[in-house]
Amino acid sequence: FLFGFHNSHTSGRHRGHDVPLPWFPHSDYHYEYTECDVFGSRWRVAVPNKADICTGLPDPVHGTQCAFSCSEGEFLDMQSQRCKKCAVGTYSLGTGIAFDEWDSLPSGFSNQGVNPNDEDIFTNCSSSTWTPKGDYISSNTDECTATLFYAVNLKKPGIVSFEYVYPDEGIYFEFFVQNDQCQSTDSASRWMKISETKWSKYLVCLNLTGNNVLYWRTTGYVVAGSEVKPVLLRNIGISGVSYTSECFQCKPGTYSEKPGSARCTPCPVDTYSNKGATVCLHCDPDKYSEAGSGTCKPRPACTVSDYFYTHTPCDSKGKTQLMYKWIQPKICSETVNGAVKLPASGEKQTCPPCNPGFFFSNSSTCEPCDQGSYSNGTACIKCPVGTEPVLAFEYKWWNTMPKNMRSYTLRQWLSHSENTTGWEVAGEYVYTTPGDQDVDNQMLTLKVPGYRLPQSVSKASENSELSRISFVFETTCSANCTFSFLAGYNQWLNDVVEWWRGSQAKQSYSFLIQKNTTDSFTWSFQRTGKNSEGRKHSGDMARIYSIHIANVIGGVASQCRRCAVNPAGFSSACVPCPPGHYMVNGTGVCKSCPPNTIIRADQSVGVDACIPCGPNTERNEAYTACRSDCSLDVLTTEGERMHYDFSALSNITSFQSGPRFTNKGLRYFHHFNIGLCGEKVRKMATCVDNVTESGNEVKGYVCQSTAVPSGIRSQSLVSTQPVLIGDALIGVTTDTTLSGISSPDWLFPSATGLRDVIFYFGSSESTLACKEGRSATVRLRCNPTVTAKDLITLPSNCSEGTCDGCTFHFLWESQYACPRCTTNNYRAIVSACIQGIQRTTYVWQQPLQCFGGESLPPPVVSACVSLDFWLRFGVSTGTIAAVLLMSISCYFWKKTRKVDS
């Protein structure tokens, strides 16, 4: 984007400017400055106010240096060329510009919408820009990149400030500054934090003088096609630009009582002011006004909706007083015809009992029971041996507001928050008091220190249900009221979980808590969302009768449960069972589980508490999970034993799918992390959201996140929407089906006869689409030609890794996925005997389907006898035998003749 020097004139849309206004009041002429020369100097010249005046003007004189500026609350007197303080009733930003009205785009701002993709995909983003909305400007909500930028020339280092609302993590929002030396804001600090439902203020120092361009940039990211909330901006202020040659009158509803004011002060409640006021005037007794008002309005007659009641703490006699109070600020009149009076306070009533887990102390206050005890709200009782307290927060009696709950009123979300009471206790319930305005949000917030599963429940079930919050409520409305329930994940992120519109009968609602990042809950009630003034629907209200949160750290107990399963770290209140043992019917008698089994992560008793590990896996030392040590032995159909060693593949391995595209053409990828196997203390595969402040994180064997290419933001990888696919190892086998999970061969056709080794993983995290939870299969295929360790592919007909959305399939080809070589994998080749020498050479059987293990033996050289030697030896031996035979024949012939004679 271009840099430039912006010349602007003061208007109702912004205060101040970065070059001086030329007007200096005089009957015949006024003063102006010439353009600055290369030395930073200029001249002050007189300019006639009428065309026919050509003589008698003051001579030009040297002007102030171009870097000269006035402070806040001052203006430059062109006659004396000195800074003077603004008079009372006026103000000046000095060296600043302020943009506080957004009926249209102020002069000097530029707006641009572009396609963020670097692919050759046509997407029309020309209309995806920031939109002025009167008091603020709103960003786009689609998948285009909308940029609002402003070029400013700084005379000295200054500050840029603005207020923003950033409620939705489905849109990226960044602010950065680039100067004429091509220096830009650090990439780590340019990303804005998610805000709550109120305006957040942001300040950035502008350290370099000269040309600077300010950028506000948003990019929507809606993979599922759902809508996102826009980013809102207002009250942009920039200091360090130049000076102002005049001061501005305070607008109605504000005043300045001292000379040299940099800003005007809003008038308090029940006062008003006109333009340029030095003091606020009180409204007449029969009229009222809100803070910052320029007029007063007649007071309406008081009604029953203008007051509320509450209870005092219990006294030593177990009594509480009923107290009536006017809603503050009080705007109604008790003297108008038909007005009601405030009922008398002080009526005593019997205090309700304490909430479960508490008891009445000697001072008649409710105190929590000691650890290992429980109560129904009266007296504390020790949990019996073999049980443990069920820790929770449970509120069903409302005599005083609990210490970890806060009530306040949030003004219209385009205004500021005020710490006024929004909810009051009423014995059997807590209810919303009549608000100052029907559009106010009456907030009730409950803070939670964290969650911990009972000692009898294994950590393996944390992903399914860590805790649960339930509450009973009702609403009574004459208008279109809204009752909302929000879950807070940190100080910036507060998401609406559920909301109800209009009157609602008494009912219960439950919300499952799966992670320890949920640290607060908020109930909000708004009588109407229409911008109407007054209290037309102040009788509308919401009531909450009870709230219950399970497994809370620092909670109290209303009951105890049997310690059915006790892994290591059991509570002293429970009957301890050694690791690998289960309790027989809660009797306290412990029996050992069979070999290679783990303890079930629920309250099962008896032998059903022991779960056998899957094929080729072994239990861990805590008896809570099955694991693989990365080794495997497989028998072939010929009875041959093949040994595998996958330890080279044990590290966390990452890979991503091919590019995917949203409806608008935004490119993204599915990023996977796999932790296959390993030692007893194994690092888990982790997927995290590094876009928003929520920092959501999942850990397990297999996880997935959505990755946006680095062109969207200045990071190597942008990851969001982490999903856990597998957090438990079910088994390792060459079978294509295990425990209901199938990995058919047609997903990854193979041309070799060697079967793949399949790792089966499961997840206890169920969803609406995957009621049985997600699962994953990782096929390890022997490929000696692959030297890389991370050649992982997805099924060709299921490009996202899953065909049904619940079971994911991966093919991992590697030489480390081959069985270890043995003597059966090579053969001997014996050469011919040449000159009495014979060689034996060993070669691998082809195709080679092994890696490592046995090495090829070295060639063997041995002595031998050739064929012609054996021929000569045979002829000689035959000749000798023939001569010997003839000699013997002759001998016997002669001897025979002597006998005959």
Automatic annotation (TrEMBL):
Residues annotated as transmembrane: 869-893
Entry membrane topology: Single-pass type I membrane protein
Residue span, Elapor1-like galactose binding domain: 96-241
Keyword terms of this UniProt record: Membrane, Transmembrane, Transmembrane helix
Annotated Elapor1/2 galactose binding domain residues: 393-557
Residue ranges constituting the Elapor1/2 mannose 6-phosphate receptor homology domain according to the UniProt record: 639-821
Domain Elapor1/2 C-terminal: 825-860
Organism domain of life: Eukaryota
Elapor1/2 TNF receptor-like domain segment(s): 353-391
Subcellular location: Endomembrane system
Record InterPro entries: Elapor1-like_3rd, Elapor1/2, Elapor1/2_C, Elapor1/2_GBD, Elapor1/2_MRH, Elapor1/2_TNFR-like, Growth_fac_rcpt_cys_sf, Man6P_isomerase_rcpt-bd_dom_sf
One of the GO BP terms on file: autophagosome assembly
GO cellular component assignments: extracellular exosome; late endosome; lysosome; plasma membrane; trans-Golgi network
Entry-linked Pfam families: ELAPOR1_C, GBD_ELAPOR1, GBD_ELAPOR1-like_3rd, MRH_ELAPOR1_9th, TNFR_ELAPOR1_6th
The name this protein goes by in its record: Endosome-lysosome associated apoptosis and autophagy regulator 1
Organism, scientific name: Takifugu rubripes
